[in-house]
Amino acid sequence: MQIIDAHHHLWDLEANGEGYPWLAPDDHDRGWGDTSSLKKTYSVPALLEDARRAGVTLKKSVHIQANFDPTRPVDETRWLQGLGDARGHEGLPSAIVGFANLATPDVERVLAAHAESSRFRGVRQVLNRHENPVHNRAPRDFLADAEWQQGFGLLAKYGLSFDAQIYYPQAAQLVAVAQAHPDVPVVIDHTLLPLEREEAHIAGWRAAVAALAGLPHVMMKISGFGMVERDWTAESVAPFVLHCIDCYTPARIMFGSNFPVDKLMADYEKVWAAYAEIVQGFSAEEREQMFVGSAERFYRI
Known about the structure:
The protein has 301 residues and is an alpha/beta fold. The protein has one domain: Alpha-Beta Barrel (TIM Barrel). It has helices at residues 44-54, 73-85, 107-114, 146-157, 171-180, 199-213, 234-248, 268-278, 284-299; strands at residues 2-8, 57-64, 95-98, 120-124, 161-164, 186-188, 218-222, 253-255. The protein has an 8-stranded parallel β-sheet with strand order 1-2-3-4-5-6-7-8. Helix 1 packs across helix 8 and helix 6 (199-213) packs parallel to helix 7. It is globular. 45% of the residues are buried. The mean pLDDT is 95.
């Protein structure tokens, strides 16, 4: 099976050892269990080897910012550009989605510096806010911040997209921002993170997915199930995947591994075999859209 991995990370703890504060031994518990296996280099050859063992052909890939030192995010982009240009890496990563704090006064300088790298395509600034502080991933509610919204608007000037990582109760805020900036393509990361599984929460998640799908410049990325369900199976996640496809259609769906983070919960073969099993009832053309075409168009690769 040929794929584009539309959501993965790389890090080199030898070359950039102090660049990943979240991998420090004293970093807080994220609810993922023992993360010690993440505290080592994950390289392009390691990603290619995971794909080989899984029996999938990794046509292209999209690197999503790996919470590199937020005071110098362009360093991560430049390092990744070098990896993509290096011999033996098969042109991976094909696209780079970097970090920029859109609420800072100098954000345009950061965006311009990112854009000097030919593989740079967009920004992810994690926005997750939750009533339970354990699940917070953002220090404050950026979606409600006027300065952040102004910075978001600058993405269009540089032809950049936005990877949005939120929880479903934040969907209305994101809809408002996206409506105000129809020239900024948005993709929802990690299947809108269906964290709580009580009936009311699932209903809220389904409604939020549908509301965001009403905006034609918004797409959905299926990924990250291990972060919300450690022992997930194809059967347990299929209703979430199929609801997203129903709302967005295959032309606006893409798949990602979230490796190596989701390697804590499943190997690469399990991830892609589950996706393939869930969508086996779709046509060959529809599957090609979801596994390759949608990501190619969105990230222009």
